[in-house]
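In practice, a research group might receive sequence data for several interacting partners and want a quick structural hypothesis before committing to experiments. The following worked case mirrors that situation: the sequences arrive first, and a predicted assembly follows.
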Amino acid sequence: MNGKTMAFLGQVFRDFYYKNAERISAPIRMNEREFGYMSFNKVMVRHLSFQKEGELRVFLIKEAPHSVYYSCAYYHEPTLAMEEKGWKGADLIFDIDADAIPTDCKEEHNNWVCKDCSLMGKGKRLEKCPKCGGMRIDEENWVCPLCLEATKSEAIKLIDFLLEDFGIQKKSIKVYFSGSRGYHVTVEESSFEGLDQMARNELSDYVSGVGLSLESLGFSKGVSYESMYGLLPLTKDPGWRGRIARFFSEMEFEDYDSTGKDNRDKILYIYGKKGYKGFVDLVNMIVKKLSAKIDVMVTTDIHRIFRLFNTLHGSTGMIKKECDDLIPFDPLTDAVVLGEEPIQVFVNHSPKFTLKRNLFGPYKSEKVTLPLMVAVYLMGKGAARLVDYE
Amino acid sequence: MEIEFGIEDLAKYPFLREAGDYVKELDLSIEDLIQEDYRPAIEKAKKRVLEAIQKNFISSEISEADLEILSFPLALMLVKAIGIDYFMYRYSLAESLRAERLLEREKEPIIFHIFKSAFNVEAISIEHSVFDFKVNIVEYLKRATNFHKPEWKLINRVVEKGFVYLKTHELVRLIREEIRKMIYGRMKSLSLPKMPDKLKEVMVEISNALPPMSSKELQSVTPGNFPPCVTHVLDLLQKGKNVPHYGRFLLTSYLIGIGKSVDDVIGIYPKSPDFSERLTRYQVEHIAGMRGGRRRYKVPSCRTVITHSLCFKDKVLCAKIKSPLQFGREPIAPKRKATRSRKP
Ligand code: SF4
Ligand SMILES: [Zn+2]
Ligand SMILES: [Zn+2]
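A structural hypothesis for the assembly, expressed as tokens:
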């Protein structure tokens, strides 16, 4: 990003914070949290603290940073070095990122660029450049309504785990679109607050289906069907057992006719047909389908900082936005906050993309006049630069 | 669920606060305890300690509830007086295993009550074909992450609306380590009264029966178990008083002798204005045999300590030793029984 573009983005952000200061709200227990920010020239500043909402607003207008973060953790002294802060507890946070969820659309809108010979190609990044053999390959990931919708359905699965299994109150769960490519699901003011990394790892393994044993579903090698029968999961069972039983009950299997039969009969029938090994593979596949694809590292990091809600994401110009109602939420519309005044930019490269229900691109090495929100989106991604006015 | 513990319950779980209250109400001094009436309590305490340390097992049979309750704090005192951290650990572990066995067979309301009052965990009993209790998921996680078998992983449990389902033995297993820590903590914070000779005799009997320790275990010898001559030198040092040269030699050679590192020993010497760490290090390393002739200096014998007027002999505990190193550790030759059993 060149200096002019950077300065322009800073001015746009400052303007936004100035006009929308009252939209900036403090997280609960703000003075116990660490704040940090990154400037447009990618300098990271951490260990800040704010006492009042007003201070935070003034700071945003003054600094107009690329990104603003706050800690999930509560500290005695948030401004001290990490070992001296005095950890009191932390919100339980889950992060779901579009990049981690395989979707077909990525072949369309993601691409790679060789840093050595500038060769470009569609889809997932290659190990090695096919032209020059170079290994320095950049990935350019974009999002579209399809992959963001897939990300959202992971969030919906996750929330079901939080409510039904973990017993977390609906009012303690907040869901945010991150402002770029995913969702943050935050649990505040709960008894989970004091849990350490190991305990949080158990929670994240639970929702992401890691470590489920066949024994917990009632299967054991070398045991007769009769003695296993009573231990197999029922559709009305809570937790993973119920989820898996319901999957089996809805699943079509060869020409199995379930009329007049118990779901346990069906499970045993499939078990018999598949054999132990085949059955393990089937259950793994089911677990993969039913689990929520969260970033495990995020949930177990009890000192992590997260983008502050209602602030702008420097790579997109969208805001991190709370989704009051997740189902109809459309991130590429609802999180767009910048205006539509025309701005002329030079676009290096961009695939077709959607913003505020309009289709833009594809562009390749061309000057275009675009609405501000789109121009910022491209400049933030590093795909475009400002064109001088003179 | 309002429920009062009966004396029988307290005898099963003497680590409970309620059992402590019961003992307090008896208002017995240590002098009372060595009277003949309480002999069985002391005997029981001795049995507790020996079983724990030798077999890692404390019998859960209870003959007289009040003696059983009393024997517990007495046993804690005896173990603490041995002064070796390793035995405090072993003892607390054996007590927690005893509690575990009893709890597994316990009535649900009593389990609920114990979990609630001692650990602030609500163990709610449930009607279920497989499970007996449910506990809050957060309380479960705080403890279960110490276990590494797959069946303790949250994903392999039945989890519903913030509760984890458990069988009785799993519930009890979950809490066992806390019982151990609780008992261990009690021993750690216990301040020992001046031991009447009768109790010291019991201690000697216990010391005689202690199993030999590996060198790693030896390193956990704590100040409480230092012989009086060494403790005296330590006292002088801590009070900033002048320590005769030979006193330093006794302390240093003793600590090296029980397996402390040179750094540990240097750390014991306080930083006084005239303190020169380099000099201390030099002297300590010299005694440890790391300098000069590389000869490790032996701990002086009790006789030598006496000639330097540094001996503060304890009538009972120093009775049969020849070196400070033997204090509280080296088995004392068992008393010969007056009569040998004869074949009929
Ligand atoms: S008898 Fe030996 S161990 Fe006891 S105080 Fe005297 S010198 Fe120290
Ligand atoms: Zn190349
Ligand atoms: Zn997509």
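Before designing any experiment, note the following. Chain B has 16 helices and four strands. The mean pLDDT of chain B is 82.
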